[in-house]
Structure formats: structure tokens, C-alpha cells
Amino acid sequence: MKRSELCSRRKSSVGIASSLVLPGRRTCPQVVLMEALSCGERRLGSDEEYAAPAVGVSLCDSAPLVWRMQDLRAVRAQGLVGALLGSLPRTPRQNGRLGRPLLLLPEEEGLLRERRAAAALPDRCQDWGGAELRQKHEEEEKKSFEEQSVLALEDRKLALLRAMTGAESGATSADEALRRRLQALDQNFTFPQSAMAVQLSTARAGLSYCPEARAFLQAYGPTGAEPRCDARYQVFRDLRGRGFYLTSAGKFGGDFLVYPGDPLRFHAHFIAVCVSLDESVCLLDVLAVARLGSNVKKTVLLCSPGPDARVCYTSLQWSGMI
Amino acid sequence: MSGASGGEKRPPPNWILQHPAYQQMKDLQIEDSAQVHAAFLVYMDLTEVRRWKEVSCVKSSELQVVLLEAREKEGAPTLTILPLPAHQSVTHKSIRHVLDRGFPVLLCAVAADSTLVYQRMTDGLVTPDPPVGPFQDMGRRQHRKRRQQR
Fold this sequence. Notes:
The complex is a heterodimer.
Chain A: H1 3-19, H2 29-42, E1 55-60, E2 63-66, H3 69-77, E3 83-86, E4 99-103, H4 106-114, E5 118-121, H5 130-166, H6 172-188, H7 227-241, E6 245-248, E7 256-259, E8 270-274, E9 280-282, H8 283-295, E10 299-305, E11 311-318
Parallel strand pairs in A: 1-5, 8-10
Antiparallel strand pairs in A: 1-2, 2-4, 3-4, 6-7, 7-8, 10-11
Helix pairs in contact in A: 2-3, 4-7, 5-6
Chain B: H1 15-18, H2 20-27, H3 33-49, E1 53-60, E2 65-71, E3 78-85, E4 89-91, H4 92-99, E5 105-110, E6 116-123, H5 141-149
Parallel strand pairs in B: 3-5
Antiparallel strand pairs in B: 1-2, 2-3, 5-6
């Protein structure tokens, strides 16, 4: 596939994402991401200040998930991309556009912890049992019913008035009957329960009922147990600090894909492979990943954290010598 | 054919061992003979096949390997070439050593059948070449195609 086609497809797919906005429904995650993107742009200058409240992270068997919309916005505004996992209710049978929750990379979670910007949310809302939820729902329904009956009465009166004024001047008896009906309406009107319109609030479906975060997740300490994990984290932090956006590079056999800006707008420039300086790598593997990189028009970066907390990068490129 | 004693034809002398460039490399006293052999093959490729200029060999004491220095043509910048047998392993540290010499580095992997693969290595983040235009907005064509397939 030509690169130009890819670029164009990306541009058109951006258009398609915005067309997923269904009228009146502003909960589509893609739309939120676009909004967050434009917010993030304005905040480019103040990337270092993290004055925003903590992001709620739910741990599902050690997988860090972000569920709430404001948390997703906050995560994206900090330049962390993550991966959406859920299906969208209106378009279930496809994998092109996914919905919440957002799965964070271990490095992204580590970065949030380091900035003290992540807080653990409980898996289940133990405080909010089923009974309380049900009670709250019933109260809301009752309130809605009362509002709706008032409105229905108004509607009925208006309809009768319109019928009265629309009647011929000659038919006075019909007029009189209508007037009497109008007067009786206030006493006799009943709004049946079956006629009530029930509102389903998908935007709040149980996720924001969780009480606010309690414990801040502890900072990500240098474990030293797994050198490769540590190398990955150092590289992630350094590249993020330079303003690049990183996602996982499973498709390309590397550790990260490095984008010069938001992944929704750019193609990746680099495939980052994280090794420690002393780690011995088979030359054939180096050739393989370099060849792959040249086939997909990305530069392969060998990244190693150095001794003085700096990370050194080596770019591998095709030599052009056949 | 001939008698038992001394009758067998002596195998022809190994021309590689006698080549002055190879002997130069041998004088650098590198223990890894496979690497020296690889360096020689790269040397021959650069000088005879690609006709590069000013090809010379140097020793890297930290890595204990033979490095080559060459220019692609007159006036071109000098490059350092690191020849390695393909089955060997390499560390990022050793690559950094070679990069620290200050010249652009070409890593050359020499396979068992003498196939040579050159990879350019640079310090830092080198942006890949941008895609060539002109660009055409594909628009809805992708979706139209998918609908037709259904």
C-alpha cells in the first residue's frame, strides 16, 4: 500500500470518526478523543503542569483500566494513548472502532503513578449495593413521572383549546361541551404509568457512581528485578518527556511505536526496541527488525538507558546498498 | 595414476591467506578468525565490487574486532564499517563504541554463504523519509468497496 494512500486513508478515517456522532449522543469515545485532542493542543505549552485531579484507574487482575470519560480525557491530555478494549453499543460487530475501557500500558500506568496522578478505584462499588441503586432509580423515575404528568396535562388542555378555537362559530353546543371538558380536566385527568417515557441514561451507566478515589497509587519504584522492564520504562519516560506519543508495537515486533504527535493525526516515525546496553542481541534479529522497519517506512530505534539517567538511541536505516 | 608417495596433487594455495590485505588484518592480532574472515570479505566487496576509495583496516581494542574505514567516492565522508559474522551476537554498547569514533557507521552482516547485508547506524533519532506526493483523498472509496463485497 502506498504511503500516500495510507495518509489519505488516515485523513478520511478521521472524517469517518466524527461521522459516528449520532444526533444527541455525545458519548462516543472517538468524539471525546477528538475533543481531548483539541484540548491537548491548547495545553501543549504547559505539558509539565499536572494540576488536574487524579485519574481513576481500576485494576482488573493487574491490568490497569480507565472507565470514566473525564479520566480518559485527562489521560489523553497528558499524552498517554492506551488502547480501547470495549465494543460500542451501536456498532458491536467490528474491531475498527472500540469503546471504553481504556487499557493502559504498564509504562503508562507507571508514569501516572510517578506523577502521583493515578488513584485506585475499587473493582466493585461495595458501598453502593444493588438496593441503593434501585432506590435511587425508583426515586428518579417517580420524579420523572410527576414532571411528565404535569406536562401531559398542559398538552391536553392546549389540544382542547385548539379544538375550541378551531370550531365553527355556529357549533356552540360542541363548544360548550369542550369547555366543560376543559374544566373537568383538572380533576379527572390521570396520566397512566404505561404512557410514561422512560429515559435510559447511558452516559452514567454505573461507572461514575463509584465514590471518589481513596488511595493514590504508589509511585513506580525502580524494581531492578527485570532489567528489560526497567529499560522499557526509562525509554518510555524519556521519549514521552521529549513530546512523542507512544503505543505498543505488537504489530511490528518492537516495544513501542513512536509518533511525533497524536496517533490520530500522524503515522509513527519510529519502532523503538528497548535493550539494556550490555544485553547481547543476535545479529539476525537486528537485521530482521531493521528490514521490517524499512519495509513499513519507519526507522528502527535501538534504545538503551545509559548510566547517567540518559537514554542513548541508535537509528537503524537501510543502507541502500543492494 | 601416480605412485603412493607425493603423488597426490597438492591442493592449490589458499589465495585468501596470501592476500596482502588479509595479512594486514592478521597483523592486527585479532583472535576471532571468523570475524577477520568476515572483514576480509567485506574488504573485497568494497574494493573490487563497489570500487570504494581509501579502504583501510583498523583494530578496535575495546571490541577486539577489525573495523574498516572507507569512502564511497572521492570527497565523500569517511564511513566506519563493522563486519560481523551473521550468527554472532552484538550488544548496544559495542555499537555505541563504534559510533563514538565519530564517523557514520555501516554494520555489515556476513552470512555463511558470504552474502553481505549493510545496515546504516546513526546516533540519535533520524526521521524516516516522508512519503512522496501527490496525495489523493480516498474519501468514501474504502467504505464503498466494503459494501460491495457484502
